[in-house]
Amino acid sequence: MTSPTCRELLSSHACAHSPWAPFVLARGQGSWVWDTDGRRYLDFATGIGVNALGHAHPDVVAAIVDQASQLSHTSNLYAHEPYAQLCARLCELSFGERVFLCSSGTEAIEAALKAALRFFVSQKRPRHHFVGTEGSFHGRTLGALSVTGQPAYRAGYEPVLGASTFVPFGDIEAMRAAVSPRTAAVVVEPVQGNGGVVVAPPGYLAALRQICDAHGALLVFDEVQTGIGRCGAWFAHQNAGIEPDIMALAKAVGGGLPLGAAVLTAPVAAALTAGTHGTTFGGNALACRAGLATLETIAREELLGHALRLGEAFTRRMSASAEVLECRGQGAMLGVQVRNPKAVRRACQDAGLLVTTAGPDVVRVLPPLNATLEEMEQACDILDHVLTSQTETSEAESHL
Ligand SMILES: *Cc1c(COP(=O)(O)O)cnc(C)c1O
User: Fold this and answer.
1) In sequence order, what E strands does the chain have?
2) Ligand 1 pocket test: which of 224, 228, 246, 259 has the largest number of ligand atoms within 8 Å of its C-beta?
3) Is 250 in the pocket of ligand 1 (CB under 6 A)?
């Protein structure tokens, strides 16, 4: 009797939450991955923006191996050096003065929401109201869902937690009308990722800062996807020249290992006193070392500037395509609005390029920040070819 295949085991034993691709990945190197049949793909899905340095970057591998051979996990009861180093580094790179480490994006948002609630409790004037934006995505815990403005993710879990108000992303006047002295925090992605790579209009983030200040509300930026160089700055809000009170990080921050972070100003962090929040895995030593190696590599290889060049190359190519309704993005967080994103994603996959979809009509492209410009051209060749042949096919069908 032959032992069951990976796909057989998944279909009989794994929760059916994920629409697995029709192949199984075996290994990766740089911007490329190979499946178990030896087929090669250019990986511009990067595990949904997690693999900022592609696969098996030697410095990240070395850091993980070194740390694993010494100390992998201690819990928050016992300190270790990589935890302290990572908190310090994230503060050095941002507005942050204190950092809470966890294991995922949804937990980073959860920590941000809890910190905001605690902040007002500690001032003896509790606030419970949050304002989010339509089309946003902040994660899958009930807390994160309570500020996620997409009905599809909330269905079956309503009323989630408490009352949040949702306003259209980018609409300053709607935000001004929604925020009041009851509002604990406004929670916004500087560039909506899952919602379809939607870049905030110029002046939007600065207006949010001003609106929050006018009502004493906290401003939370969800930089889970936009952070760690993706948008051509360490954090996307730095492109707008303003600072939030809290920033949520995950995805690329752990160099491929599960890691999240809530980065806080000192006054907000002061409300999260010992015992008010915690996690067993958060800031695990292996994840912190992988994260530190990732940050170091991004700085040393000057990948913030390179992210901008990758984005320019993509935009130059794809905005020239007649099939693309709109080409958008910031830095290396990219998307093309097309008529049938799911079919485009599948056809790209068949042609050897991995990308994801986002929102109702966008193919999202998240190259490794260290992808070469040649690799970007190859990706554009495939995408361009797929878009052109799809249009030809649908035109041929419409003539039948
Ligand atoms: C992916 C994502 C999350 C959720 O992160 P998980 O690690 O899946 O919990 C939250 N916010 C944004 C902007 C994201 O892109």
Assistant:
1) 25-29, 32-35, 40-43, 98-102, 129-133, 164-167, 183-188, 191-192, 198-199, 218-222, 246-249, 260-264, 326-330, 333-337, 353-354, 356-358, 362-365
2) 224
3) yes
Ligand 1 close to Cβ of residue 104 (< 6 A): yes
Of the candidates 169, 203, 161, the residue with the CA atom closest to the CA atom of residue 186: 169
Ligand 1 centroid distance, CA of 105 (Å): 4
- 56-108 pLDDT, tens digit per residue, is 999 999 999 999 999 999 999 999 999 999 999 999 999 999 999 999 999 99
Q: At what angle do helices 285-300 and 58-68 cross, to 10 degrees?
A: 150
Instruction: Tell me the best of 137, 221, 362 to mutate to test the pocket of ligand 1, counting ligand atoms within 8 Å of each CB and taking the most.
Output: 137
> How far, in Å, are 71, 228, 293, 372 from residue 90 at the CA level?
22, 10, 13, 27
pTM summary value = 0.96
Question: How many angstroms does the Cα of residue 259 sit away from the middle of ligand 1?
Answer: 11
**Cα 151 to averaged position of ligand 1 atoms, centre (Å):** 16
pLDDT tens track for 22-62: 999 999 999 999 999 999 999 999 999 999 999 999 999 99
Residue 313 φ/ψ, nearest 5 degrees: -60, -45
The pLDDT confidence band at residue 400, using thresholds 50, 70 and 90, is: low
Nearest protein CA to atom 11 of ligand 1, as residue: 138
Q: Which residue has the tokens 């752990």?
A: 254
Give the CA radius of gyration of the chain: 21
Res 325 pLDDT > 70:
yes
- CA within 13 Å, CB half, 47: 22
